[in-house]
Write a structure and sequence with these properties.
Blueprint (H helix, E strand, L loop, with lengths): L4 E6 L14 H16 L3 E6 L7 H6 L4 H25 L4 E5 L8 E2 L2 H9 L3 E5 L9 H11 L4 E6 L4 E2 L11 E2 L1 E3 H7 L6 H9 L4 E5 L5 H6 L6 E4 L2
Parallel strand pairs: 1-2, 1-6, 2-5, 3-4, 3-5, 6-10, 9-11
Antiparallel strand pairs: 7-8, 10-11
Helix pairs in contact: 1-3, 5-7
Amino acid sequence: MRYNRILLKLSGESLMGDKQFGIDNKRLSSYAQQIKEIHDAGVEVAIVIGGGNIFRGVQAEEGGMDRTHGDYMGMLATMINSMALQSSLEAVGINTRLQSAIEMREIAEPYVRRRAVRHLEKGRVVIFGAGTGNPFFTTDSAASLRAIEINADVILKGTRVDGIYTADPLKDPTATKYDKLTFDDAYAKDLKIMDMTAFTLCKENNLPIVVFDMDTPGQLMKLMQGNEIGTLVHNK
């Protein structure tokens, strides 16, 4: 396998599938099957998932709600998605642990780095919920932070498109795809891959990012097998 330990970052919006809101069970099952494939091949898998299919703190602020309050609501949304994904993974026979940055003893373990690493070493998939536990930080920042803490080899950012383009390929048919980029190139071109905090964390800690299409079954395994899937962002 190309990587031994990965942090898979999924957006909440991706769980909607063809719906306008909430969770598409078919999409959830597809993700669980793809994760099972690489898990069964021996890859240690940690996951961070957003909450945008349910609630976004930034949108709440635009509507007049206090940003801090809205961000905490967004963290709760990530826990709903994390629990849904945990259930789907366990339905296909994978042992999982859900750790929360906000204490919720009845449904999740508190986040403890050493315990998370031990779970991974024992072959369990670990899902990190509730972001960083702090307002004003996105789940991209949480993914970067957790990946660094657990010494992941890479962040795999699963999206609806097959990589990073010069423009939005869904809106601009002339957009062209990058196969590889340096962090400095991405800064210079002002590409919106992750928020700046998350992106800088990865750059400073030499943690590569691969942006790829998670909605096409089989892509995750191909990536693990060394195929040139998606776009790789790395230091020189």
